Amino acid sequence: MGGTASVPRLSLDTGLTHYLTEIRKFPMLRPDQESAYAKRWREQGDREAAYHLVTSHLRLVAKIAMRYRGYGLPIADIISEGNVGLMQAVKRSARSNSTLPNSSHPKSSTRSQRNISARTPISRRFSRVVADINAIYAERGIVTGIATLPEQDAKEVRMKPHVICLMASSVDGRTLPSRWRPKGSAGNLFERVHDELAGDAWLVGRVTGQEFAKGKPYPASTSESFPREHWFARRDAQAYGVVLDAQGKIGWARSDIGGDPVLVVLSEKVSDAHLAGLRRDGVSYIFAGGSELDLALTLDILNRELGVKRLLLEGGGGANGAFLRAGLVDELHLIVCPAIDGAKGAPSVFDSTEAEAAQRAPVMAMTLESSQTLEGGAMLLRYRIQNEAPEAPASR
Fold first, then answer.
1. For residue 340, what is the DSSP state?
2. DSSP-derived 3-state class of residue 285
3. Whole-angstrom Cα Rg for the chain
4. Domains of the chain listed by start with CATH number
5. If you count DSSP H runs as helices and E runs as strands, how many of each does the chain have, helices first?
6. 394 or 11, which is more confident?
7. How far is C-alpha 208 from the chain's CA centre?
8. Is 263:286 a contact under the CB 8 Å cutoff?
9. Taking the model in full, what pTM does it have?
10. What does the pLDDT look like over 137-177, one tens digit per residue?
11. Are the C-beta atoms of residues 86 and 57 closer than 8 Å to each other?
12. CB 301, CB 285: distance < 8 Å
């Protein structure tokens, strides 16, 4: 299938890592964008529209193919066959003048799409892989090029930044330096390590974020109305300060923290008045859930919209604990300071609410990558965290 530009190819010369980097550059389309491109392709034969439909799904092909690593199957061949199937599916949609899948008859639309297959010769050993890929295409309605990814499958193709939890604590794991004895044990160690890690963004929870804010809560009402769509005051920063504020409680009266633009993660329940206040203050915001925040979706949006590849998770304990229980923390860099808190109820590196206390984090292993003695008797411990792999969808 032709297009306005070539689709990235996976070859021995460039390698898998280069290919995955290249396909991450293609944005995943919103449902309305998919619909518009599909209509242009179906009705006008617009090759640029077909190109966008194909490239926006290359991550999905790669994600499914990666499930077969370790089975003796060449990943390059699996990805190539999946890409061919995707291009042929989009091509067929124009010839058949397909229409939107009818949500009231999902089975009939799915049955008509499950026969997609690549027409290049392939070994029988790839048939199961191609079938799995085709089943996902069918579920997405790729034959028409128009569909909304179900929430479960959306999680399957999200692209996550590398998450490093950076914290400073006393030897008993407490994180409020004002309570430590002896005093002044932390110094500026946290800021120094933070700068050395050079993350594309750093993230804190609402309570910690409130400490940086300078304003009062925004007015309760406004005559303005805003769509629940991401809004960015800036997209060109070297690093962003990300704050979780699901219910929209923080009034900022500032647009940056130490030169890093503030970006707030909201639920769709926030008021128009709060959105108006954020815009007046020049504070960017994204939506990552209806009433509660989806942390995996938050990371995907940061990666997709702002190119965040390394994120520093910096507290408080509630936010750290939530990411840990979601299996989203890749490393822990812990600065252990020569001090003791010794009091019950003090905030800790990882924490939870009473309701979350029974939820166990899916951590399978922690490997000490390095240890470093810092000034004043502090230690920097770097751990790599191995999380349990999420269960793959059942075979169809």
1. B
2. strand
3. 24
4. 16-156 (no CATH), 162-387 (3.40.430.10)
5. 13, 10
6. 11
7. 21
8. yes
9. 0.62
10. 454 444 433 333 344 444 444 578 999 999 999 999 999 99
11. yes
12. no
